[in-house]
Amino acid sequence: DGQRYGNLKPGYGANEMKIGPELGFGWVMGEKLSEQVLLIKTCWGGRSVKRDFLPPNAEMPPAEELQKELQNARKRNPDTTMKQIEERYGKAYTDMLAHVRNVLANLKQYFPDYDPRRGYELAGLVWFQGWNDMVDRSQRDEKYVNYTKRLSLLIKSVRKDLNTPNL
Question: Is the pTM of this model over 0.85?
């Protein structure tokens, strides 16, 4: 529903009439910590770690799986290419990092009270996702073993890509 920023309040959910998990989390963190807290939220429904948030250090699916995905996509759009199928893998991961980097590069815009002399620390990542991976029959059949591996790789990749080994 577009970018929104400002003091934490209801309205940062799926649209300005809804709340998301950041509201309660932010309130608790704000009460718990004496430092100021900035939450950088990225949120896109209908995404999976298997495809959309696939980190760069994870393996792509086997060729036969990609081919099957291409065939299914061509039922909706006959002009779909394999390149378009492959480009979906990791796109949400890349978009998430781009958003975080943009906010950090423009902290005074998004967080007017930011004091550059004090600096900032990326201290945590909250991951509230998994429905699409859960209902994916192929992952269910393998007992989510590869989901666990991919999620672990995602965490390692975020730490590396944001240069935050203790995140």
Answer: yes
Is pLDDT above 70 for 1?
A: no
The whole-angstrom separation of Cα 128 and Cα 71 is 31
Query: Does 130 have pLDDT greater than 70?
Result: yes
Cα dihedral 110→113→119→123 (10° resolution): -60
Considering only CA atoms, which of 162, 167, 25 is closest in space to residue 103?
Answer: 162
> Exposure string (b/e) for 102-134, b if CB count within 10 Å is 16 or more?
ebeeebeebbeeeeeeeeeebeeeeeebeebbe
Query: What is the distance between the alpha carbons of residues 79 and 69, in angstroms, rounded to a whole number?
Result: 13
Question: Both tokens of residue 116?
Answer: 């550059």
| pLDDT above 70: residue 7 | yes
